[in-house]
Here is the input.
Amino acid sequence: MSSLDNKKILLGVTGGIAAYKSAVLLRALQAAGAEVRVVMTSAAQAFVTPLTFQALSGHPVYTELLDPGQEASMDHISLARWADFILVAPATADFIARVANGHANDLLSTLCLAATVPIALAPAMNQGMWLNVATQGNIETISGYGYQLWGPDEGDQACGETGPGRMLEPEALLAKVMDFFAPGPLQDVSVLLTAGGTQEPIDPVRFVGNRSSGRMGYALVEAMRDLGAEVTLISGPVSLLPPTGIEFHSIQTAQEMYAEVMARASDCNIFVAVAAVADYRPGEVAKEKIKKRNDSLSLEMVRNPDILADVSALDDAPFTVGFAAETEQVEAYAEAKRLAKGVDMIAANQVGTSEGGFESDRNALTLLWEGGRESLPMMNKSQLARQLADRIKTHYLKVENARNEN
Ligand code: C5P
Here is the structure.
């Protein structure tokens, strides 16, 4: 059985000379078990006719956004929802620029904008166009949106130049799609994760909050998802887009986060509490905006529930992972926290230094578990999240295997 069996793949073809190779790619995807529908831009049709792809795929090729006939067979939103995966090969410099800027001025760009499934682009263009600062800026932008970028390759180009910009060969693209769908080590494992900070209202316009950017939690969500886990994210307000391919719930307060987590905690295998939850909230929320009448203002704060401790205390508790941000005696305080909250693993980091922590792109962690420790050195948060996800996977599987043996 292939990892592509019954997978629905939308193959987007844009206007580059490599478009002729997309016909071979279409055949290879189908031979591997995928169901493929093809969308072509108008420039692509200058290189290869839709009839080629129609004959090979056995289905009509979609080319128009505003054509009543095509919209009647499958409208653009249904087409975006139909797909499990979108692969644009070749992706020209112009197409990349359009998706980087959120354009929806033809069918394929509209599909990319509407889609919630993963999207991969296989760039193909002249080496000068690829190396141009505008293209490189667009590539950085779309990587930030979560697009996968496959290639380009280096070598001889159709224009006679040599350099980076060749589309990856169809076999290499097929291998990447198959890899993408290959079951990960956490297949059938459900992971519940909290991220971001909570906001505790004082009155209708003010709140007590903290500086969590949500970056570490969101990077960890992507890393756990990429290991094959089914991930549910309960997130406080952050300025990040929710990662694709996961279940997402947004909350504002610690109590809302508590309710969303407790409703799911017994059904998940792993719970990771990355959120910076406000420990206290104003006891009473003023109905109207508080006026500055006096020189001082006192708020009575009441304790919020400890989500991590309460999940760990459940009879059917999942494997639990907590975070400990400390300014001093990091390991000692973190270990005390691990024991007090009864969690399986704690990830400790030093905050209040010039590098790393809450609002930074970089961080370092020390992992502590029953009878062991490991330091992950300072690196960017997405690399760190991948290493942390790997360690969580290893320890979770070890605990699961030991439980199954008993
Ligand atoms: O006690 P402290 O806030 O330092 O603990 C940090 C860890 O506990 C983090 O994993 C955080 O997400 C979790 N936590 C929680 N609910 C709270 C406070 C912290 O889940 N109310």
